[in-house]
Amino acid sequence: MSLVVLSVRALAAQYGRRLVFEDVTFDVGTGQCLGVIGANGAGKTTLLRTLVGCLAPVRGEVRINGLLPRDALSRTGVAYFAGEATLPGFVRAAAWGSLGNGDAVTNDRRRLRALSRGTRQLLGLRTVLGRQPLGLVILDEPWEGLDPDAARWLTTTLEIKRDRGAGVVLASHRLHDLAGLCDLYLLLVRNRSVLVKAHELAPAGALTPDVLAEVFDKLRSGAYPRLSTQPESVTGG
Q1: How far apart are CA 92 and CA 25, in angstroms?
Q2: Rounded Cα–Cα distance for residues 120 and 123 (Å)
């Protein structure tokens, strides 16, 4: 039986005076992968930052293994990476790479800001995903800037983490990467959310990026007038 790693209840976030989203509710269990999908400005990054305690919600709660996010980060195995926002440019690559499992990811002595975007992205991912043990992985646009070899490495690594029992949360525009990896999808539309299961969208076979895009486009066009956190909002038509 899957145990709940991440629990989110009636979450609402605000940016300035603008309500970014509200009433977001979902669970991620051990060995589950959740994909967060939304247009630019829909609140994907805000949601992930709230999950790890970088932002305080205006309402609702987040629990990681029953703990508040900031407590969980210091006591449990949580990997969070959001590209440039989580990479201090003044730190040397070799020093940053050693923060994972203690082994050197790279011997490069240059500062992070001197590296190419793709190299920085891969170094950051290899460092946070190298930490052991990991019970929860939260990544914001992790495939951005990666070349094909690095992208394949990332997908394979996430599959291994998931299959070994970690909960995984991924926000990405790359539907083709999410489609074959995630069990659940949280679609952010008009300040609200819809939670759907992969097997409900493709009961007869593998979920494709085209199906994901079709569901998302229907939601944006108002084809499903009642948006909630329940899968029936989509599957019930």
Answers
A1: 39
A2: 5
The continuous run of DSSP H or E covering 206 comes out as: none
Q: Which domains can be identified in the chain, with CATH numbers?
A: 4-77+133-235 (3.40.50.300), 90-130 (no CATH)
**Strand arrangement of the beta sheet that strand 59-64 belongs to:** 18-29, 4-15, 59-64
Confidence of residue 225 (pLDDT cuts 50, 70, 90): very low
Instruction: Answer whether 11's CB lies under 8 Å from 24's CB.
Output: yes
Which residue from 9, 64, 51, 3 is spatially nearest to 31, judged by alpha carbons?
Answer: 3
Residue among 35, 60, 39 nearest 50 (CA): 60
* Average pLDDT over every residue of 183-210: 89
What DSSP state is assigned to residue 236?
T
Which residues have a Cβ under 8 Å from the Cβ of 220 and sit 6 or more positions away? 39, 189, 190
Place of tokens 């991620």: 28
> Do residues 109 and 93 lie in contact, with contact meaning Cβ atoms separated by under 8 Å?
yes
| DSSP state string for 131-163 | SSS-SEEEEESTTTT--HHHHHHHHHHHHHHHH
Instruction: Say what percent of the chain tops pLDDT 70.
Output: 91
User: Residue 118: what are its φ and ψ, rounded to 5°?
Assistant: -65, -40
Question: How far apart are the C-alpha atoms of 56 and 223, rounded to whole Å?
Answer: 32
Distance in angstroms (rounded) separating the CA atoms of residues 200 and 184? 10
The average pLDDT across 116-123 equals 90
